[in-house]
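Quick one: structure for this chain?
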Amino acid sequence: MGIEKAFDDFQKIVNADKDRVDVARGRRDIFKKAFNAEADIAEVFGSGSLARSTQLDPVHDVDLVAVYNADDHPDWGTPGESAADALEYTRGRIKDMLGATHGTVDKLVRHTRWRNHAVKCWIDPPELPDAFTVDVMPAMRQANGTLLVPQVATEEWITVDPEYLISAVADHQRDWEYFRPLVRILKRWRHSVPTQVKSLVMEVLALKCMPRSGNRPEALRTFFTAAAIQVNLGVVDPAGHCGPIQGDLDVAVLRAALENASDVAARACVEAANGNTDEAQRAWQDIFGPDFPAPTQKLSSGITAPALITTRPVRDAPQG
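Got it. Here's what it folds into:
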C-alpha cells in the first residue's frame, strides 16, 4: 500500500462526514442570518473548530460569536450581574427568533441554557447519536480589536481573541497543505492518552510544534518530539489573553504519551528510509490504533491480502 496511501486512507476515517459538516454550517448560517438582522448587533462570526476547519468526526457543536453594539448595552462589560444579564438576553433573543414553537426567523431550537460564556442551543432530539448543539457567545468589540465576553463564574468580562487562532491556523495551512488534516489526526490521537486532553490543547501544540513543510511522517515525528518538550513549558492561549488552555491537564501523563509516540515515529521513519515499508506502517499503526491501515502481505499464491494484525498489541483510539 505504501505510507502515503495509508495516511490518505486514515485521513478519510478521521475527517468529519461531509454531510454532517454541511448540516452544521447550514445551522450556523441560520443563526447568523437571525442575529445579523438585529438592530443592536454589530457583527456575527463563527469560531471554534468548524471555523478553523479542524473539526473532528463527529461534529459536537457549532460556535458563534454575536458582537453587540456597546451603545445599546451600556451596562455590559462591567463586573457583576451584567455577565449573566448578557447571556440571558441572548438566550431570550434566540428563543424569540429561532424557538421551535414560535420562532420568527426559523423554528429550529428545542431548548436553550446558558453556561459560563455562551448560550447552548439544542436542536436535535437528545436521543440521536449524532446530535450537536449551537453555542452562541455574546461579546463586545474593544478598540484594539479584541473582544470582551461574559464569564459568569467570576461575574466579570474577560478579553479573548478567537480570530487570532482562526488566522494563525489559516496562515499555517497556506504554508503547508497537510496542517489542518494532521491537526485532526492529532485530535483523534489524544483519545489514546490515559488522561483527559482537550482538543484545543492538541491544536495549539500543533501550531507551536508542527513544521510548515515536508512529508507527513517526518512532520509527525518532529511534532511528537517538540511537543513532548513544549508541554512542560505550558500550553497557553496563543493570543496571550486567557492563560493555560486546560488548567487541570496532567502534564506528566501527556508528556509520557508524546515521548512514546516520538520514539515509535522515529522508528517508523527509519524503517521507511531503509525500505521496510510494512514495518513503518505497523509502527504508525502502533501510534494511531487499528484504524490506521495495515500493510499487505504476500500469500503463497502471490496474491496480496491485508496483513493480520490481531496478534500485534495496539492501542485503541476511539473516534470523537
